[in-house]
Automatic annotation (TrEMBL), chain A:
Signal peptide: 1-24
One Pfam family this sequence matches: SBP_bac_3
PANTHER family: ABC TRANSPORTER GLUTAMINE-BINDING PROTEIN GLNH, AMINO ACID ABC TRANSPORTER PERMEASE
Species the sequence originates in: Pseudonocardia oroxyli
InterPro entries the record matches: Bact_solute-bind_prot3, SBP_3_CS, Solute-binding_3/MltF_N
The keyword Transport appears for this protein: yes
Highest taxon, organism lineage: Bacteria
Protein known as: Amino acid ABC transporter substrate-binding protein, PAAT family
Keyword ATP-binding: no
Boundaries of every Solute-binding protein family 3/N-terminal domain copy: 61-286
TrEMBL record, chain B:
Membrane topology: Multi-pass membrane protein
Designated name of the protein: Amino acid ABC transporter membrane protein 1, PAAT family
Domain ABC transmembrane type-1: 15-200
Compartments where located: Cell membrane
Membrane in keyword set: yes
Originating organism: Pseudonocardia oroxyli
Membrane-spanning parts: 12-37, 49-71, 83-103, 181-206
Keyword terms of this UniProt record: Amino-acid transport, Cell membrane, Membrane, Transmembrane, Transmembrane helix, Transport
Principal location listed in the UniProt entry: membrane
Alphabetized Pfam families for the sequence: BPD_transp_1
GO annotation, biological process: amino acid transport
Sample GO molecular function, one term: transmembrane transporter activity
């Protein structure tokens, strides 16, 4: 009898494991595209032999690194696929390579691992609110930028003392940001280290602002706008950008041809309206006007 | 490995941040854990129930949940304070449950004749516990208490993610994501920092164990 019961438990456990594996699917997923737009896929695209474009077009799939937890840019929904402006930009590039949106494989790339996944060839490109800077260029190359964000502050709706980064010290304000982010480094110029509070995600900062543990939250304006939007009027954006954060597309270091291809693709996407369509599907919720495509940086 | 030399001052500040957190949490959890253990063996039923409840709650709750409850639950109730002290409190509550159980096992290892003799010469419960039983109990619990404290030092990395920042592990994420250093080398530096805390702690405890050992 005892053995019998054990066997039943084992079978039940195995069933649970199988079910979990079937649903989970791990960090990568290759399910159908999201509900958002699909740029027209290029038919019979051909590229010079030996280039990354030829390799990808041949393979028929694109391995994309993006964020799974960034509202408006790359946020994984219930269908298992991330959605947002970053994903749309990647779809535009994929389409130009003759790869439809449902052939994109998504890999989650939080800020800390973006260079690693490119260097280790686990993704073909990273589109993940990835600010172009010189330190990062030592390890990878950037195509783009495809958007220029800027660091800003978010405060409680009734706060009139904080009007910009220079007023933080006078207000003796505690400022919240995310560990290891560029904004968390930049804000050190304006606030004493003891007044900087760091969490792993921005949603915790928003909670700390709501309960009065901190007086301001700082990061790129578009991310803050998303948080303001979700706060039911409890927060407001200071609207005083004090940095320029050009978001680029991370690719293997020294792949000049692929970089030029992506820059050209972005330029064409702006001209034929697919860039605007990508914006209207995602970021227009918080910022209705489609910005002009920023000038591309040098490909090295 | 250049990151270790270039960013040495940042590593040192992270090390000191972790050290500060651990010193306060270690003192707090040793004191609190002993008090709870005393409650659990006391002759007063409500105190025993309180001790059991404390251990049940904090030993069976994941540390991240305890820290979350302290850092986000207390402000919700109108208690505002610095995240450093919230972190110390969360780490102390969690670790005290394990300290309590280690101390209680030590108390149970003291032969009952000792407690009976203490009572026979007229000592009160508090006196017999603090003068006769606990001094003997602490000798046997040095090894398990050492493991609990070393585990606490490593657990402090989780506390760092709850608004404290500036601890060793947070320094690691700052260097890899904001400044673009290679993860393996950076985290090796973080590992070294934790080893500088845990290995001497282990050696110190082994010495203490030898020093306190008595022939029975």
């Amino acid at each position: 009898m005892r053995l019998n019961r054990l066997a039943k438990v084992a079978v039940a456990a195995a069933a649970v494991v199988v079910a979990a594996t079937a649903c989970g699917g791990g960090g990568s997923s290759q399910l159908g595209g999201g509900a958002t737009s699909a740029p027209p896929v290029a038919e019979g695209a051909s590229f010079p032999e030996g280039t990354t474009m030829a390799k990808l077009a041949q393979a028929g799939t694109l391995r994309l690194g993006t964020k799974f937890d960034q509202p408006l840019f790359g946020l994984k929904g219930l269908d298992g696929n991330p959605q947002g402006f970053d994903v749309e930009i990647a779809k535009i590039v994929a389409a130009k390579l003759g790869i439809p949106a449902d052939k994109i494989t998504y890999t989650e790339t939080p800020s800390a691992v973006r260079e690693e996944v490119i260097e280790q060839d686990r993704v073909d490109m990273v589109v993940a609110t990835y600010t172009i800077n010189d330190k990062r260029k030592e390890r990878i190359s950037f195509a783009g930028p495809y958007y220029v964000a800027g660091q800003d502050l978010m405060v409680a709706a009734d706060n009139s003392a904080i009007t910009g980064p220079d007023t933080l010290r006078a207000a003796n304000a505690k400022v919240c940001s995310v560990t290891g982010s560029t904004p968390s480094e930049k804000i050190k110029e304006y606030v004493d280290p003891a007044n900087i509070v760091l969490f792993d995600v921005y949603s915790k900062c928003a909670d700390a602002l709501r309960t009065g543990q901190v007086q301001a939250v700082t990061t790129d304006n578009v991310i803050l706008t998303g948080l303001v939007e979700n706060s039911n009027g409890a927060f407001k954006l200071v609207n005083n950008k004090f940095t320029e954060e050009p978001y680029g597309i991370g690719i293997k270091k020294g792949d000049v041809a692929f970089c030029q291809f992506i820059d050209q693709t972005l330029k064409e996407a702006e001209a034929d309206g697919t860039y605007a369509a990508a914006w209207n599907n995602t970021l227009s919720k918080v910022s209705p006007d489609v910005p002009p495509l920023p000038a591309a940086g040098a490909c090295t | 490995m250049g990151v270790l030399i270039e960013q040495f001052p940042l590593y040192v500040s992270g090390f000191l941040g972790t050290l500060r957190l651990c010193v306060f949490a270690a003192i707090g959890s040793l004191v609190l854990g002993t008090v709870i253990a005393a409650c659990r063996v006391s002759p007063v039923p409500p105190l025993r129930a309180l001790g059991s409840a404390w251990v049940t709650v904090f030993r069976n709750t994941p540390l991240a949940v305890v820290l979350f409850a302290v850092a986000f639950g207390l402000p919700e109730l109108g208690v505002n304070g610095s995240y450093f002290w919230f972190g110390v409190a969360g780490l102390t509550f969690y670790t005290s449950a394990f300290v309590c159980e280690a101390v209680r096992s030590g108390i149970n290892s003291v032969p009952p004749g000792q407690a009976e003799a203490a009572r026979a010469v007229g000592l009160t419960f508090t006196q017999s516990l603090s003068l006769v039983i606990l001094p003997q109990a602490f000798r046997t619990v040095v090894p398990p208490l050492g493991s609990v404290i070393i585990a606490m030092i490593k657990n402090s990395a989780i506390a760092g993610a709850f608004g404290i920042g500036g601890d060793l592990f947070a320094v690691g994420s700052t260097l890899t994501s904001a400044q673009g250093y290679a993860a393996a080398a950076t985290l090796f530096g973080v590992l070294l920092g934790y080893l500088v805390l845990t290995i001497p702690a282990g050696i110190g405890l082994a010495r203490l164990e030898k020093k306190l050992a008595v022939a029975r």
